[in-house]
């Protein structure tokens, strides 16, 4: 008995370390790449770490980038746990940001205590609507959600291009004749409070961390969360247990889109104070990477999005000071995803081996954190 | 609106539509073969970018277009090998490993471009090959027989893919691996071996699709120049119901709407082009929701196969 318990906790430790090993492996591949390209990986990585974590300024930037990442990652945790692969983060962020901007500009005279919650909520609702389209299409008409979210991303992008060049274009840009595609500045009362003077760090980070705890409670302490996870683990068993599987598939996409939409709302009210092109900034994809890295656990997503926020900030610094293109980080993110999903192979093999050795023991009290058993439908 | 409907403009739109379908065709027809064997490769866009860069770089350095095409093919195949190891051998969730492959290709192609070339350069790509006699035909000639070799190759892939899938032993094995891997395995087909072949083949085609952009249609390389085209190519496989000629229809729909939109811009027509660009995507969602439901996807699509279970 004692022996099997030790091996269990040993396995737990390995599960915990796997994503970290994946990151180290990715960084190692990145270093080899840099060497091949004639760059000094040591200098590049030093700048990357110093720039993102080495001083107050870098740290506030890291926390600022972490905010939308964490919000998107929370949504991804819900969707993936519910068996829905939401690749539509980019589009949902855009919709959220557009709605936030439109509502804030429509009611510029409302006081802060009412306008700010209203604009954040409209951002979340718009994202939820956009994610919900894919969710309902999957639930009702069995349309592959990967494909529909990809399509919805492009549609959202075009919608943004249209609005920012036409109906929502900043009147000042028209007057100046410059026509830079951006909206007018939002009324000051919806600007999120800056936490550190002369930096971009805003109160959105607090909101995101509080929500991470709430999502944890939702997924593991409520019936709704239990059912979302049950549907993700095993649809037919859930159906036999009387769970309305289709509604929960749609629900997990709606919630997921809501969090991405909120990320857009927070970027607008916290950082840019207006809608700009390129606001989604790849967070829709980076959020997936962060969520996977955090074991699809809302609390794991906190350090994970901090880490990837730091990578993004460090990459910018690296590009500016030692001219190593920040695209390196995008490639490394891809490798992290590949290594993390590949490493589950060992987790699965191990749990199967344990079943073979000792059929009485449950194969694993919490089956692989990501992977087939959780996400596979 | 009157000048929009002159013969010259309509011929121009049709010609552009035919031309712009080429990258979709390469990528989708390759992806189709992979999906028929049971593997969804969502990394097509990243592979295309790598192929586009490889082809562009080789042509930029050597001026040899065929060498460029070969480079795209090899780089695509290598990306496919990576995908196959992770998704076939290690049985990773395909929707997610594909995203990883996409990000890897997107980042790496930009990194290589910035460090190895740096600025926007152009190359002289495949020139137009006018088919003698046929290209002299009125209307038909300029629309169909006035393209570069890459475009003809893309259309040649349609019947070739059809033949491969429906008339060869390999095609039978591919479909068996995607429909009923256990049965295929019991008949001595190496399911994972077949899947390796299809994923690598499909990725090589995606590499060519990228080359079709960088040294066939546009003759430049830019960061993220595919702009999500690879994801559309994956969707077109569903849209076309896993049939080469269905995919041809879908590819033509996308490319023609694109052509229309480009020409409307050139002629300064008051159509909001951003909204026009949306149309094919909306249409695809509608088609996926209603039309494609009649066609059943390969039963084992996205399901890894392991013997003895």
Account of the 3D structure:
- The complex is a heterodimer of chains A (377) and B (309).
- Chain A is mostly helical and 377 residues long.
- Chain A has a single domain, classed as ABC transporter involved in vitamin B12 uptake, BtuC (Orthogonal Bundle), CATH 1.10.3470.
- Chain A contains 15 helices and no strands.
- The longest helix of chain A has 35 residues.
- Chain B has one domain: ABC transporter involved in vitamin B12 uptake, BtuC (Orthogonal Bundle), CATH 1.10.3470.
- Helices cover 71% and strands 2% of the residues of chain B.
- Chain B has twelve helices and two strands.
- Chain B has a two-stranded antiparallel sheet.
- In chain B, helix 3 runs antiparallel to helix 4 and helix 10 runs parallel beside helix 12.
- Chain B is globular, with a radius of gyration of 20 Å.
- The interface between A and B is large, with 53 and 52 residues.
């Amino acid at each position: 008995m004692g022996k099997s318990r030790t091996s269990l906790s040993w396995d737990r430790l390995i599960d915990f370390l796997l994503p970290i090993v994946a990151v180290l492996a990715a960084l190692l591949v990145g270093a080899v790449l840099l060497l091949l390209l004639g760059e000094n990986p040591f200098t590049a990585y030093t700048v990357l770490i110093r720039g993102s974590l080495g001083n107050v300024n870098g740290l506030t930037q890291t926390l600022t980038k972490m905010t939308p990442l964490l919000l998107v990652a929370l949504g991804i945790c819900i969707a993936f746990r519910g068996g829905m692969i939401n690749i539509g983060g980019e589009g949902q962020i855009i919709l959220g940001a557009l709605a936030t901007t439109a509502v804030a500009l429509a009611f510029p005279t409302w006081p802060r205590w009412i306008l700010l919650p209203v604009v954040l909520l409209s951002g979340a609702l718009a994202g939820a609507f956009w994610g919900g389209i894919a969710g309902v299409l999957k639930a009702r008409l069995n349309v592959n959600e990967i494909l529909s979210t990809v399509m919805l991303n492009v549609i959202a992008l075009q919608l943004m291009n249209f609005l920012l060049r036409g109906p929502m274009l900043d009147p000042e840009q028209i007057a100046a004749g410059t026509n830079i595609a951006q909206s007018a500045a939002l009324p000051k009362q919806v600007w999120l409070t800056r936490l550190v003077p002369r930096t971009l760090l805003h109160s959105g980070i607090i909101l995101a961390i509080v929500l991470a705890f709430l999502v944890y409670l939702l997924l593991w302490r409520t019936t709704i969360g239990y059912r979302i996870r049950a549907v993700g683990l095993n649809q037919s068993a859930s159906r036999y247990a009387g769970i309305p599987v289709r509604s929960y598939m749609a629900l997990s996409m709606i919630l997921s889109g809501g969090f991405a939409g909120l990320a857009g709302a927070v970027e607008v009210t916290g950082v840019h104070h207006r809608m700009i092109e390129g606001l989604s900034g790849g967070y829709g994809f980076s959020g997936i990477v962060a969520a996977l890295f955090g074991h699809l656990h809302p609390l794991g997503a906190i350090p994970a999005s901090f880490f990837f926020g730091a990578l993004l900030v460090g990459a910018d610094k690296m590009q500016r000071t030692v001219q190593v293109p920040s695209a390196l980080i995008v490639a490394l993110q891809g490798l992290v995803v590949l290594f993390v999903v590949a490493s589950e192979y060992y987790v699965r093999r191990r749990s199967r081996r344990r079943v073979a050795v000792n059929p009485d023991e449950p194969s694993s009290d919490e089956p692989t954190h990501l992977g087939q058993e959780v996400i596979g439908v | 609106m009157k000048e929009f409907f002159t013969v010259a403009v309509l011929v121009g739109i049709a010609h552009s539509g035919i031309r712009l379908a080429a990258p979709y065709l390469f990528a989708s027809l390759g992806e189709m073969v992979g999906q028929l064997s049971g593997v969804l490769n969502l990394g097509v866009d990243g592979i295309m970018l790598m192929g586009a860069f490889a082809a562009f770089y080789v042509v930029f350095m050597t001026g040899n277009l065929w060498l460029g095409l070969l480079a795209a093919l090899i780089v695509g195949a290598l990306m496919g090998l990576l995908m196959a190891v992770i998704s076939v051998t290690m049985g990773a969730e395909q929707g997610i490993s594909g995203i990883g492959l996409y990000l890897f290709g997107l980042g790496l192609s930009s990194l290589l471009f910035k460090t190895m070339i740096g600025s926007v350069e152009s190359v002289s790509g495949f020139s137009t090959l006018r088919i003698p006699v046929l290209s002299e035909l009125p209307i038909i000639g300029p629309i169909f027989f006035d393209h570069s070799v890459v475009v003809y190759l893309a259309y040649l892939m349609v019947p070739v893919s059809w033949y491969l899938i429906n008339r060869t032993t390999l095609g039978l094995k591919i479909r068996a691996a995607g429909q009923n891997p256990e049965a295929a395995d019991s008949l001595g087909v190496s399911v994972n071996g077949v899947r390796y072949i299809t994923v690598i083949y499909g990725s090589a085609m995606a590499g060519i699709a990228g080359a079709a952009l960088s040294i066939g249609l546009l003759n430049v390389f830019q960061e993220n120049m595919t702009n999500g085209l690879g994801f559309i190519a994956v969707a077109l496989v569903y849209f076309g119901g896993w049939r080469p000629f269905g995919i041809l229809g879908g590819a033509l729909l996308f490319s023609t709407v694109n052509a229309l939109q480009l020409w409307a811009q050139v002629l300064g027509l008051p159509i909001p082009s951003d909204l026009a660009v949306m149309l094919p995507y909306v249409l695809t969602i509608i088609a996926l929701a209603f039309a494609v439901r009649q066609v059943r996807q390969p039963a084992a699509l996205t399901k890894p196969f392991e013997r003895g279970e």
